Every structure is written in structure tokens, then in C-alpha cells.
């Protein structure tokens, strides 16, 4: 096995002697690439953003921006990354480097003051700059401008910067820079790189100081390993695990990467269900489904930032067993099941039967979530309401997923998933019963909203009081009714 190494800005960088828990951020800074900054070390600020060559959605390779503070360096063994230093073109000694177009726009439009956040913004912007399906809006709006509040006339999606914080420049000049970038030139090396395959995942066994980071080639090998090493900690996108390492100093003796296992990376639409591999990233699901599951399309923009969604997975969101994860309320409303795999085979468990207690589930330590199955057809009336303190990149106080079949003004079927109101995500069974068979009227909805306020056992914490959480449940149903009345009465 070749010694673990990452190609950083075109140069091979061995991992040794870094400890297996070392993040990409720490590795870069230890090796002198101090452009990549640490602001928070928990995925909140984006100062550590770097570009990784990943399998593309519309081209062989996408340049994907990720939080280097969360990703273990060993997870990128054999992979290619670009930092802010690698974007500029360095010429002869003594001459100034030629700035990357994104850097140039940030410089000339005053997008940087103290500069601490700037390398992270640059990498997130560069990822969007190279997004193959970013296309210019040519149709002007009524004011003679093109684009909209969240997209520039160049098609730049401002949400690509939702994981980057700047505390001194202010966001307008940064937005100006983002909306001013053009298309990559034909001879742009990173644009050309998109046309070739990204590096394949490589089997890794990286041991230092008694701790090991492992990546196997196949699911079967991984499951056998999990059976032999009950102490092993599984890691996918590492957006939860990385916080544990940095903030809670978690040091596992054996970490097993599953994020590139082909068996966990499939997304298939069958006649009676959609199957989403547990290690397909949230961004990939969003782009590959492209709105085909409207409830998921409503979830993703409210789920963390683009930087987090570029690494985070459904397997990881369900694997934590957290009662405040955003996908369970949605997947409960969609009546999803989980395909659990161990070394002997697979079993399918309805998500409604998966959680057994606070951060506990029916999944055994030697089992992995291989995929999430969503039955078809989908209910036509769906909504995801997330109540959080910040609009983007925040954990829910309460989250509600709705999926209703309403025919001839009558609720034929109601499925409602709730997060943040009990020790586990739950179905709002009493509310579903209060709606089914009844007219979708203000009277029914007001009565059902009273039932919904009583679902679960919400608690008070620093995010919200129990009274507020209950009140939000009821409001959510009233809001859905107000939003849908026109649509279903027609
Ligand atoms: C800044 C920030 C914002 C966030 N915002 C949100 C938010 O808005 N909503 C939200 O719900 N979450 C949020 N999160 C949490 C996190 O991003 C999600 O839970 C994400 O889906 C985790 O996926 P991952 O692949 O990164 O998990 P990892 O960190 O790799 O793993 C998490 C856990 O799941 C287990 N696991 C992973 N994959 C599997 C599998 N296939 N089978 C079994 N177990 C598995 C791992 O062993 C680990 O215990 C946020 C996190 C951060 C840092
Ligand atoms: S250092 Fe803040 S997101 Fe990584
Ligand atoms: S330029 Fe100072 S934090 Fe952004």
C-alpha cells in the first residue's frame, strides 16, 4: 500500500507524521499553507474552505468546496485539493502572482478588509465559478437587471457562500465580486481538469501513535471489518464527527471511512421507489434529483450551508440518531425505509421503527445504513417548515415535514414527521388521524392544529422553550393550510 498522501496545489504532500485525527486544515497549516484559516473549527464560518476534486454531477470532476476543519486529512488520501494559494498563478521569482479571476474581483471590488475570511470566501466562490451548470441569466427583469435576489446575472448562486462569515467587510462588496465573475477561460487549468475523472478512492491504512484510519475498497470488506472491530467509528462526510474531534476532543482508536464506497453512492429511481445511497452527499442528491422529490428540494436549502451539504450525507444525519436532525421529519413524512447492511446481508426497516431512544436506534454497531428508500408515488401536497434562530446554517428548534393526499377537498392520507419535540424524531400520529377523512378546511385544520400542539414532549433549552416549540407545531399546520388552500380547492 502506498504511503498516505494528498495532492495539494499539484504537489504530493505525505500525511506522516500527522496523527490520524489531524484535520485537513491542521495539515495544511502545519505544512506552511497558512492561507487556509481557522475561525471556529466547527463548520460555522468557512474560513477554512478548500476545493476538492470530486465526482461531478454534469462533468467528470467538480471542484467542491468543503470545510477543511472538519475533514480528517487521512480521508483525502490519494485525492487532490486546491487551496487559496493554489488559485493564483505564480510567475518568475520577484514578480507578482497573477490573481485568479475570483481573487481579482474580490480585490478590485473591496471584498476584503482584515482578510481573515477572504481565502475561505475565495475557495467557496471558486467552486461556484467552476460549477458546470452555472449559466448567465440573459433576460433582464423589470428593472433592467438580470438575475434575482439570490443569483447574479452570471448565474452565481449566493447560497454557495452561505457557509462563509465575514465580520468586517460587509457582504455587499463580496456579493458584487461574486456577481461580477465571468466564465472560466478555455485554457484555465482547473476548468480543464473538470473534463478528466477525479482521483479514484484508494484503500487506506494509516496508523500513527496507536490510532488507525482505514478505508476499504468494498462494502463487504468494510462490513467484515466492522464485525471484527466493534470499537471502530464510522465516518462519512465528517460534518458531525469533525465537530466531535475538534470541540469535544474525541480520539477514536480506529476510524473507518465509508464516504466513497460505491455501494453507498448509488441514486436510483425505480418504478415504485427512489433509493438514495447513504453516502451520496446532500449537494449531489439535490442536484441529481433536481426537484423530483419536492419535499427534499424544500429541505436542502434549509439544511446547513452549501459547504456542509457538500460533505454531509443522509447516512450521517440518520447515523447520529439526533432528535433534531432535519432529514428525519421529511423522511418520516415520505414514509421512507432504511436499508441496513451487515456482513451477512441486508434488512429493510421503516424509518418510523428505526429510532428507539435518545440517539439510539435498532441499528447494531456492525451494521451500516446502506441506503434510504422513498416509496412512489409521492403525495402531492408537501412542505418542510424549519424553525431556527438563523435562516440558514442553523440547527432546528422544531422541524416539521408534511405529506398529504387531498382529493376532492378531502384529506385521504396525512403523514407528518416531527423533529425537536421528543427524544427521537416522531410521526404526529394523532394529528394524522385528526386530518384523515376530513375536509381540508379551516375548521378541520384548526382542530388538528390543537392536536398537533400536544404531540411529543418538547423540552425547554437554549434554543427554545417547550411552550414555543408546541406553539410552532400548531402554527406550522395553519401555515400549510394557508399556503395550499388555493392550490387544492381548484
Ligand atoms: C455548521 C453545521 C451546521 C449543521 N447544520 C445542520 C442542519 O441544518 N440540519 C441538520 O440536520 N444537521 C446539521 N448539521 C449536522 C450534520 O451536518 C448532518 O448531521 C450531516 O447529515 C451528517 O452527515 P455526515 O456524512 O457528515 O456524518 P458524519 O459526521 O460522517 O457521521 C455522523 C455519524 O453518523 C454515523 N454514520 C455516518 N454514515 C453512516 C451510515 N451510512 N450508516 C451508519 N452510520 C453512519 C457516523 O458513525 C457518525 O456517528 C450541521 C453540522 C454543522 C457542523
Ligand atoms: S474554521 Fe470555521 S468553518 Fe472551519
Ligand atoms: S474581511 Fe475581515 S472578517 Fe472578512
Sequence-ordered SSE layout with sheet pairings:
Blueprint: E1 5-8, E2 11-14, H1 24-30, E3 49-55, E4 61-67, E5 80-82, H2 84-87, H3 101-108, H4 118-129, H5 171-180, H6 189-193, E6 204-208, E7 211-215, H7 219-228, E8 233-235, H8 241-247, E9 254-257, E10 267-269, E11 273-277, H9 282-289, H10 294-299, H11 306-309, H12 314-319, H13 327-333, E12 337-342, E13 345-350, E14 355-357, E15 360-361, E16 368-375, E17 381-387, E18 398-407, E19 410-419, E20 426-427, H14 429-435, H15 442-453, H16 466-489
Parallel strand pairs: 1-5, 7-9, 8-9
Antiparallel strand pairs: 1-2, 3-4, 3-5, 6-7, 10-11, 11-16, 12-13, 12-16, 14-15, 17-18, 18-19, 19-20
Helix pairs in contact: 3-5, 14-15, 15-16
How would you briefly describe this protein structure?
This protein has 490 residues and is an alpha+beta fold. The protein is built from 16 helices and 20 strands.
Description:
This protein is α+β, with helices and mostly antiparallel strands. 28% of the residues lie in helices and 21% in strands. The chain contains 16 helices and 20 strands. The N and C termini lie far apart (64 Å).
Which features would summarize this protein structure in a list?
490 residues; alpha+beta; five-stranded mixed sheet; five-stranded antiparallel sheet; 16 helices; globular; binds flavin-adenine dinucleotide; binds FE2/S2 (inorganic) cluster
Amino acid at each position: 500500500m502506498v504511503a498516505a498522501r494528498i495532492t495539494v496545489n499539484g504537489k504530493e504532500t505525505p500525511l506522516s507524521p500527522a496523527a490520524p485525527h489531524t484535520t485537513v486544515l491542521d495539515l495544511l497549516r502545519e505544512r506552511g499553507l497558512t492561507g487556509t484559516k481557522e475561525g471556529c473549527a466547527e463548520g460555522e464560518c468557512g474560513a477554512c474552505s478548500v476545493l476538492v476534486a470530486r465526482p461531478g454531477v454534469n462533468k467528470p470532476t467538480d471542484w467542491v468546496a468543503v470545510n477543511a476543519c472538519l475533514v480528517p486529512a487521512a480521508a483525502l488520501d490519494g485525492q487532490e485539493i486546491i487551496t487559496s494559494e493554489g488559485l493564483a498563478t505564480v510567475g518568475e521569482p520577484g514578480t507578482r502572482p497573477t490573481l485568479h479571476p475570483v481573487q481579482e474581483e474580490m480585490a478590485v471590488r473591496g471584498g476584503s478588509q482584515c482578510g481573515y475570511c477572504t481565502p475561505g470566501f475565495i475557495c467557496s466562490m471558486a467552486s461556484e465559478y467552476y460549477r458546470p451548470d452555472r449559466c448567465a441569466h440573459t433576460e433582464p427583469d423589470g428593472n433592467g437587471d438580470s438575475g434575482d435576489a439570490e443569483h447574479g446575472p452570471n448565474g452565481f448562486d449566493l447560497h454557495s457562500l452561505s457557509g462563509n462569515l465575514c465580520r468586517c467587510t460587509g457582504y455587499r462588496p463580496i456579493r458584487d465580486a461574486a456577481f461580477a465573475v465571468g466564465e472560466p477561460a478555455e485554457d484555465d487549468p482547473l476548468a480543464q481538469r473538470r473534463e478528466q475523472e477525479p482521483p479514484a478512492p484508494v484503500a487506506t491504512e494509516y496508523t500513527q501513535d496507536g490510532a488507525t484510519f482505514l478505508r476499504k475498497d468494498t462494502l463487504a470488506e468494510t462490513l467484515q471489518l466492522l464485525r471484527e472491530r466493534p470499537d471502530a467509528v464510522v465516518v462519512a462526510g465528517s460534518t458531525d464527527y469533525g465537530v466531535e474531534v475538534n470541540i469535544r476532543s474525541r480520539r477514536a482508536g480506529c476510524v473507518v471511512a465509508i464516504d466513497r464506497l460505491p455501494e453507498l453512492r448509488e441514486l436510483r429511481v425505480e418504478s415504485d421507489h427512489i433509493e438514495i445511497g447513504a453516502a451520496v452527499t446532500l449537494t449531489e442528491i439535490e442536484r441529481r434529483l433536481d426537484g423530483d422529490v419536492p419535499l427534499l428540494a424544500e429541505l436542502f436549502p434549509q439544511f446547513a450551508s452549501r459547504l456542509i451539504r457538500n460533505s454531509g450525507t443522509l447516512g450521517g444525519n440518520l447515523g447520529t440518531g439526533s432528535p433534531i436532525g432535519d432529514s428525519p421529519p421529511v423522511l418520516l413524512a415520505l414514509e421512507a425505509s432504511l436499508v441496513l447492511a451487515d456482513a451477512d446481508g441486508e434488512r429493510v426497516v421503516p424509518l418510523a421503527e428505526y429510532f428507539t431512544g435518545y440517539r439510539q436506534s435498532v441499528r447494531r454497531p456492525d451494521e451500516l445504513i446502506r441506503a434510504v428508500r422513498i416509496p412512489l408515488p409521492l403525495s402531492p401536497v408537501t412542505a418542510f417548515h424549519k424553525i431556527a434562530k438563523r435562516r440558514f446554517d442553523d440547527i432546528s428548534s422544531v422541524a416539521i415535514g408534511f405529506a398529504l393526499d387531498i382529493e376532492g377537498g378531502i384529506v385521504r392520507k396525512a403523514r407528518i414527521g416531527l423533529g425537536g419535540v421528543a427524544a427521537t424524531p416522531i410521526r404526529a400520529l394523532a394529528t394524522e388521524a385528526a386530518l384523515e377523512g376530513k375536509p381540508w378546511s379551516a375548521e378541520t385544520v384548526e382542530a388538528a392544529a390543537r392536536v398537533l400542539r400536544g404531540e411529543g414532549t418538547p423540552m425547554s433549552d437554549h434554543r427554545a422553550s417547550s411552550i414555543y416549540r408546541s406553539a410552532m407545531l400548531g402554527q406550522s399546520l395553519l401555515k400549510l393550510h394557508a399556503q395550499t388552500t388555493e392550490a387544492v380547492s381548484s
